[in-house]
TrEMBL record:
It comes from the Bacteria. The keyword Transmembrane helix applies. This is CidA/LrgA family protein. The lineage of its organism: Bacteria, Fusobacteriati, Fusobacteriota, Fusobacteriia, Fusobacteriales. It is a multi-pass membrane protein. It holds the Pfam family LrgA.
Amino acid sequence: MILEFIIIFGISYLGEILSKILSLPVPGTVIGMFLLFIALYFKVIKVKQIERGVDILLINMAIFFIPPGVRLISSLDYMKGNWIKIIVLMILTTLITMVVTGRVVQYLVERGEKNGDN
């Protein structure tokens, strides 16, 4: 299981390094997720190699939200007077995410039906 965490966090760290070296406007964690996706897609890494580690991270995902939550609470002074903007932004981004996710799932289901997959 240690090897699984080394693979997962190593790829995440590689994303951080690439983000800093290339001065990309994308967070390193997002680049790391993309690199992990590419490695899984091209079967450089097999799902079985990281499955247990990923399961543990998913089960304990709530723990990862504690630091941003504490930071958010400590930044409440900065958000005074911007509540309407924040709420509108949250609603819009939620709606956009729901629509895009729905369209992607619908496309994949239709594509699967055309290929005879059920």
